[in-house]
Write a sequence for this structure.
């Protein structure tokens, strides 16, 4: 499938552009055989806390959510190491981007396509990740839910991209590796490419993404005429 009349490609950040498991990956030896389980639980609780805090109307910046989720994962797996906690959080500020990301963004920019991030991430987190991966010259905007005080998948988050970028929803190609995020963006009215990096099952939610990609390398063929 090809999308028509796309004016901007908007990307989720964590899990889509940046590898959320890279932080633990850089300190795997210090966690030993608990590394994968801690990383998976850290991510799971991070997402759960964003959803729950939105429902409870108890917003805090994503940086606090990230620390709270790590504390839960440490506690659940019997890890008590303040220096490792600090090192993991520092590593999360500079997550590795996926290998294809710089080339894909560059090809979109070279073709005249605008690019942006729309993320739950706190502004300082996004700024650090973008700069450490040298993506800052390849993005026209980096939008954080922090200015709204509510996390995805609230519709106001997707509206933020429409308002700030000056486009209609159907002129946005939205990319996310998170199936729930892709479904919510489709419900909002974006054209949606779900980057299903890990072969996940489809969510049973009201709307589905328009296309399913294995990596972002397949995106230019979808959005460029």
């Amino acid at each position: 499938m090809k999308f028509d009349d796309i004016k901007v490609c908007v990307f989720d950040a964590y899990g889509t552009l940046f590898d959320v498991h890279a932080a633990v990956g850089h300190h795997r030896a210090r966690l030993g055989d608990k590394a994968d389980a801690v990383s998976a639980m850290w991510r799971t609780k991070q997402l759960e806390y964003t959803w729950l805090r939105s429902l409870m109307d108890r917003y805090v910046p994503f940086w606090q959510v990230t620390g709270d989720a790590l504390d839960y994962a440490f506690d659940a797996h019997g890890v008590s190491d303040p220096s490792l906690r600090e090192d993991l959080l520092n590593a999360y500020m500079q997550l590795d981007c996926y290998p294809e990301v710089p080339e894909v963004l560059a090809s979109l920019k070279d073709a005249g396509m605008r690019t942006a991030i729309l993320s739950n991430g706190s502004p300082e987190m996004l700024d650090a990740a973008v700069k450490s991966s040298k993506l800052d010259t390849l993005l026209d905007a980096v939008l954080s839910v922090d200015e709204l005080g509510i996390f995805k998948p609230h519709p106001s988050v997707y509206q933020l991209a429409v308002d700030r970028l000056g486009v209609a929803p159907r002129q946005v190609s939205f990319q996310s590796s998170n199936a729930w995020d892709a479904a919510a963006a489709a419900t909002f009215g974006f054209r949606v490419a779900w980057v299903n990096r890990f072969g996940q099952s489809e969510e049973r939610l009201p709307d589905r993404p328009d296309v399913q990609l294995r990596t972002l390398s397949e995106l230019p063929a979808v959005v460029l005429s």
In short: The chain has a mean pLDDT of 98. DSSP finds ten helices and six strands in the chain. The radius of gyration is 17 Å.
